[in-house]
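A quick aside before the break. I want you to see a complete sequence-to-structure record at least once, exactly as it would be stored in a machine-readable document. Don't worry about memorizing anything.
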Amino acid sequence: MGKGTKPPAEGRVDWKKTAAVALPAVLAVGAMAVVVAQGALAASFAVSGTAFQVSSSKLSSKGLASYVHTDRSVDGKGHPVALLGIGEATLTDICQAAEVSTPLGTVVFKLTAGGPAGQVTARHLVIDGEDLDGDATFGTAEIGRDASTLDAVPGVAGEAGRFGLQARNIEVVDVKSHAWSATGGDFHLKGMKLNVSLDGPKCF
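That is the input. The structure line, written in tokens, reads:
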């Protein structure tokens, strides 16, 4: 941000920086928004009733923080998730796919980027996932740390007494996750492709 420009207040959307990312996300999961506060991102919205797939061949990051969290849909139903805060992420590629019921049948909304077009990068990437598969390498890991004291990723910390973990560096190969929400700041999606099709292929 330039001098004299105040960061968006919590609960407000900075459309100039996030419109390109937020619009596909809204279409994919039905109720996506991005909250920007002091340079850090966090999910602060009602999720849709649809979990979606996120995958990448390799994800590397400076900083990882995670703790148990609860996402809620507009009907008040809770969805337990592991909130994963990733400080400075570099992905060789990324795929996001969601199945959406329509009068025509089940539509697969699929967003891909990276690969031959170049790496995907994001700052303060936050994924609320119900699972995560992959081969991981951690640097300076702290497992069982109180969630309220996490400091590896600025702005990503939980409530006191909750289980948390963090690492200063992380690399995960063959990432596969089912998530309820994903947000990211300064998201650069090189070679982005968007496809909507009836019963089309998903990420995995």
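Two observations worth writing down. The two ends are 38 Å apart (CA to CA). The CA atoms of residues 59 and 91 lie 5 Å apart. We'll return to this after the break.
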